[in-house]
């Protein structure tokens, strides 16, 4: 059975995930470095890890398996989860795949270098309603596809 893992500390679509996961009756782990308010549900479990470097990422990567879904914007975590045959979506609905992860890692490293040298500043574009809508559509599509594959 599919399980959803949320890299929750900076995830802007937690409420949307709760609704979709509830509709599909899927176990959902909300993994973070600190306590946060989550809905009361037997299907939703909060996991608070210690403040160690990548503690939430390590917990998710150690538990995730084939056919599970991970929601994260963390590219190295996405890479680790793909290696465990999970489906990985960013909060804007962009899917990480075996074909796209190498380029995503390279761009992450390049942008980090450019920020360090002062060539670029700032971060990602603000999260929009369009991003939220695209995410909802992609999550639903992924879950429907996984359901069909399990039949």
Textual characterization of the structure:
The chain is 44% helix and 16% strand. By secondary structure, it is of the alpha/beta class. The protein has a single domain, classed as Rossmann fold (3-Layer(aba) Sandwich). The protein has a 6-stranded mixed β-sheet, with helices on both faces. The longest helix is centred in the C-terminal third of the chain and has 22 residues, at 129-150. The N and C termini lie close together (11 Å).
Secondary structure topology:
Blueprint: E1 3-7, H1 14-24, E2 27-32, E3 44-48, H2 55-63, E4 69-71, H3 75-83, E5 87-89, E6 95-96, H4 101-116, H5 129-150
Parallel strand pairs: 1-2, 1-4, 2-3, 4-5
Antiparallel strand pairs: 5-6
Features:
151 residues, alpha/beta, Rossmann fold, 6-stranded mixed beta sheet, 5 helices, 6 strands, globular
Task: Put the structure in a nutshell.
The protein is α/β, with parallel strands linked by helices. The chain is built from five helices and six strands, in the order E-H-E-E-H-E-H-E-E-H-H.
- What would you report as the Rg, rounded to the nearest angstrom? 15 Å
Q: Secondary-structure element sequence?
A: EHEEHEHEEHH
Unreliable stretches covering 5 or more consecutive residues:
none
Count of beta strands: 6
Tally of domains:
1
CATH fold-level topology? Rossmann fold
Helix content: 40-55%
Shape: globular
The CATH class label is Alpha Beta
The structure class reads alpha/beta
Q: Please work out how many helical segments DSSP would assign.
A: 5
The assigned CATH architecture is 3-Layer(aba) Sandwich
Sheet with the most strands? 6 strands, mixed
Strand content: 15-25%
- Cα distance spanning the termini: 11 Å
Strand order of the largest sheet: 3-2-1-4-5-6
Summed over residues and divided by their number, the pLDDT gives a mean of 88
């Amino acid at each position: 059975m599919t399980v959803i893992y949320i890299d929750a500390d900076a995830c802007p679509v937690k409420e949307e995930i709760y609704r979709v996961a509830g509709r599909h009756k899927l176990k959902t782990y909300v993994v973070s470095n600190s306590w946060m308010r989550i809905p009361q549900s037997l299907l939703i479990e909060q996991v608070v890890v210690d403040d160690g470097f990548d503690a939430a990422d390590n917990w998710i990567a150690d538990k995730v398996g084939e056919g599970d879904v991970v929601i994260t914007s963390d590219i190295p975590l996405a890479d680790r989860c793909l290696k465990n045959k999970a489906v990985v979506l960013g909060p804007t609905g962009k899917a990480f795949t075996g074909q796209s992860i190498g380029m995503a890692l390279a761009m992450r490293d390049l942008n980090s270098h450019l920020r360090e040298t002062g060539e670029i500043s700032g971060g990602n574009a603000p999260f929009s309603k369009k991003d939220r809508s695209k995410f909802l559509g992609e999550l639903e599509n992924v879950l429907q596809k996984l359901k069909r594959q399990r039949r």
